[in-house]
Amino acid sequence: xxxxxxxxxxxxxxxxxxxxxxxxxxxxxxxxxxxxxxxxxxxxxxxxxxxxxxxxxxxxxxxxxxxxxxxxxxxxxxxxxxxxxxxxxxxxxxxxxxxxxxxxxxxxxxxxxxxxxxxxxxxxxxxxxxxxxxxxxxxxxxxxxxxxxxxxxxxxxxxxxxxxxxxxxxxxxxxxxxxxxxxxxxxxxxxxxxxx
Length: 196
Known about the structure:
Layout: E1 6-14, H1 19-26, E2 30-39, E3 46-54, E4 57-65, H2 67-74, H3 87-98, E5 102-116, E6 121-132, E7 145-146, E8 155-159, H4 166-173, H5 184-188
Antiparallel strand pairs: 1-2, 1-5, 2-3, 3-4, 5-6, 6-7, 6-8
């Protein structure tokens, strides 16, 4: 990436018991979170993604989907997914059928990203975090949103494959920040009712 900010919008899913929300709040060591992600409010590239946490490791699975399938998933209809060759789509089918996985909240932000080839280091600054209020209108760039923060915080994330090279760690050493296991999903559900 060239460092220029770009818009990311995700529609997160949760089940009938808000398991993804409560697992994150409770620090459950093994958990899954499903979302549909788009960039710059466009339907040209749409991704169904699952973030899986197993202990201290995080794995992201992603597959590109069509606008038609996206609209189908947003409506809560998983029909046909069980026939897909893609294991992520099959998993989404099982979750939608057995746990009633449904759209929960839209999360918006601007991302400035920097990549380094050593250990696939990805340093991102996420700014202007916004929560879509009671909406599933994923492709509407004028969707009313609200900031879930009490201040204008930026979120710095450092991701890497196996280890963070020492010289990058030293660069980050002087950064004044609160270290925490941030969840944009949890933050943006601040205004959303739990339990359906």
